[in-house]
Specification:
Helix content: 10-25%
Number of helices: 16
Strand order of the largest sheet: 2-3-5-4-6-7-8-9-10-11
Distance between the termini: 34 Å
Largest sheet: 10 strands, mixed
Number of strands: 25
Amino acid sequence: SGLSTGGGKAQTKQSWVPYERAEEYPNISTTAGTIEMRDGIQLAYSLAVPADADGNPIEGALPTILTQTGYNISIPAIPATNEYLVKRGYAHVSVDVRGTGSSGGNWDAFGRDEQADYGEVISWVAEQSFCDGNIGSWGASFMAITQLFTAAHQHPAHKAIFAIVPMGDAYRDITYTGGQTNIGFIPLWMGLVTGLTVVPTANTFDDPQAGFEYLINDAVNAGTGFQGPIIVDAATGAGPTQYDGEFWRIRSPIEYTDRIHIPSFIVGGLNDIFQRGEPLLYEALKNNATSKLLIGPWKHVGGSRGDGLPVDDVPPLNPLAIQWFDQYLRGMDSKADEMPNVTQYLYGAERYVTSADWPHPQAKAERWYLREGGGLTQEEPASAEAGTNVLQLPVNGLCSSSTDQWTAGILALAGLPLPCLTDNTLNESLTEVTFTTEPMAQDYYINGPIQADIWVAPTMALDVGISVKVTLVGPDGSSKEITNGLLSARHRAVDVERSRFMNGQMIQPWHPFTEEAVSPAPGIGEPILLNVEVFPTSMVVPTGSSLRLAIAASDFPHGLPPLTDLADQVLGVYELLTDAEHPSSVVVPVVPLSALQ
């Protein structure tokens, strides 16, 4: 059913209380082995337990952390074992999911076989002598997603989740935003999993024949099994996976949240690749069990590490994890249940704030109208206001903050000295149409999902693509991209029952993205309304700064229409309408400034 939120009463301020526990053991001891699945497939695992000063493993049953990964447990660059937790009295089991690392079988990225393995693995862990029957799961990205699927098995030993930058909706969050193929993420991620799988490891050399067979199998599967066909379908639009359906729903943790009833800590990033899904996961889980949400100013890699913490009383991720597990695995009074429900970084204010819930309980929808001449006002447009032509170039935004976001933040990490990665003014001057408020007379606090309702009329192309960026314009004229949204006109259908409303206004549209819901291409000159989902954010537009919408036809490589759609969009033109009969606008969730004090 539709979501109706906002307009709540003022909330009591929630604060962070530091929690730290010194190491109990100076060393760790590691062993390796395999776990046999129902079909005979062997999954590789590594077990780390605390060790004394001489390196001798501590005997006896311990609360246990489980991590299941596709990034190869033998590769230290993406650690699957948390030594911080182990040295504080936890055992930690790390497992390569089938078809990755040193495990047998074929990888199919969170498919049914892999999910069945998660249940068998946690059952195996619970039965081992090193485990005291209390299991928590931990990890980032792939390792966060597997936690949610594992929790859906409802194993009685699984007591808590600490999921760092997890995905919610596989289709909408990341692979086909707005119905367009995310060519920044899909090849990068599949290449990462495949590349780390075929790297020879210690296990390869321990049994060269078996290791060689694994490497050959994994390389063949990459081309013909899962990865190759998905990439071809995404690029050409020829296969069923270009639409939402069973394939993507099976792989979407948000579809399983009704089965998850254990304490869950979700870490997200304002510019993470899973920016959309992280708060939605918290929202879905919070009524099932104690749940917390922490969102930092991070892209994917930075969020995986919790870069910049501690700051503003927010602790680093490892002390948060130990506090979480000490309470829910050890039964200690660590006050984990008293952590703030929601902690978010605010762009513009450049600090963290806490609140009782997400979306913010005091948020109310406010509408701003796009005006002739590039203004953005709360006054509705007049009837005679002229529109603006938008050229449909498929590679707009090639150098932008969005590009860095949807390639997981690796461009900024590489230290590329490109101003366009942090300032959007170059893109705006070349290919984007902008609409900007007057400088704010006082701080303007936005927190939650955003919806852009844009009227367009094709003048040359058979289809329309639209990119909407929300930016923060400083007094110096710089334009910092805060968040963005995409939509192809053929996917403009909205399921109102599943959309979010705030004080009577739709503020987060839910598009079906199914083949049955595809809308016919509009006729030349025919106005159509596109309800664009702009991913949620938290920001303050400071006094003297402005809020801006930057609109274009594409946001490459975040989105590129499949070839079947691209032919109808490329090098076309559409008119962006801003008159009284077609009042293009944006709806933002505004929170009273008193909530910041």
